[in-house]
Amino acid sequence: MNNRFRFDAPSVADEEELDDQLVAYNLRKVPCRQGEPFVKFCRCAYNEKNELVGGVLACSILWNILSIESVWVAENYRGQGIAARLLKEVEEEAKAAGCYMAQLDTFDFQAPGFYEKQGYEIFGTLTNAPKGHTHYYMKKTL
């Protein structure tokens, strides 16, 4: 065991530095292809009472690749095309900004079939993650 180092949980500042150092390394290998390294593309849907009923949170990361982080629609509003419209709007805005690909991940108990209907294809899976379920990794050309 090497006693020259101390191993511990990071502070918030250390977490930020780790992220910054990794981004700096990545950019030395492949330059940023977009104006800003991280650009948000998000949309929400509201009902007639101005209550949040759904949304998509996404970000274009470094090389014009749209990363879909969250897609959610309240249960009593599902099946009305809300998620499809939100996703399409985010994809169109990202494409107009130069994105050429979108990627996301989902679980078998979430919505892989929905994403396939929106043109996404599975390129990887983790089985039994969580136990008894499958974790899907999906992509789409924009």
TrEMBL record:
<dbReference type="Pfam" id="PF00583">
    <property type="entry name" value="Acetyltransf_1"/>
</dbReference>
<dbReference type="InterPro" id="IPR000182">
    <property type="entry name" value="GNAT_dom"/>
</dbReference>
<dbReference type="InterPro" id="IPR016181">
    <property type="entry name" value="Acyl_CoA_acyltransferase"/>
</dbReference>
<protein>
    <submittedName>
        <fullName>GNAT family N-acetyltransferase</fullName>
    </submittedName>
</protein>
<feature type="domain" description="N-acetyltransferase">
    <location>
        <begin position="1"/>
        <end position="142"/>
    </location>
</feature>
<dbReference type="GO" id="GO:0016747">
    <property type="term" value="F:acyltransferase activity, transferring groups other than amino-acyl groups"/>
</dbReference>
